[in-house]
Specification:
alpha+beta; 2 domains; 133 residues; 5 helices; single chain; Structural Genomics Hypothetical 15.5 Kd Protein In mrcA-pckA Intergenic Region, Chain A
């Protein structure tokens, strides 16, 4: 679109493929999961190139700078040109993903049963990686 063009926030989030539908985008905005330039806003807020968006999707937070605006949802390659994610945001998402993965590996259900052979192998593997074996 042209310079100085503005688009509703819910339309932009949908066009940039952060949400599958405008209804889901609107719900996230009203739930306080989307901030524009640090402020909580309504779905009709007009965004333009240069705005900074903070979008909370599940455990992940995306901090993006709006590079262009569009009211139409196109292919993913076109949607990626609408924004640029900050390096801090990328690093934060990778850190959260690692923590979630590590928490899943370390989770051992509490039971009164003996560990299976598979459970013992996982424990031995974990100890070997930590240098305790």
């Amino acid at each position: 679109m042209t310079d100085g063009a503005k688009v509703r926030l819910d339309k932009w989030l949908w066009a940039a493929r952060f949400f599958k539908t405008r209804a889901l985008a609107s719900e996230a905005i009203e739930g306080g999961k989307v901030h524009v330039n640090g402020d909580r806003v309504k779905r009709a807020k007009l965004v333009q190139a240069g705005d900074r968006l903070e979008i909370q999707l599940g455990p992940y937070e995306h901090v993006v700078l709006v590079k262009d605006v569009s009211e139409k949802r196109g292919p993913a390659t076109v949607a990626q040109r609408l924004f640029e994610e900050t390096p801090e945001s990328i690093a934060g998402r990778e850190r959260v993903a690692f923590q979630l993965k590590a928490a899943h590996v370390l989770f051992v259900p509490e039971t009164n049963e003996r560990p299976t052979k598979r459970d013992r192998r996982k424990l031995e593997d974990l100890k070997r990686r930590e240098g305790r074996a």
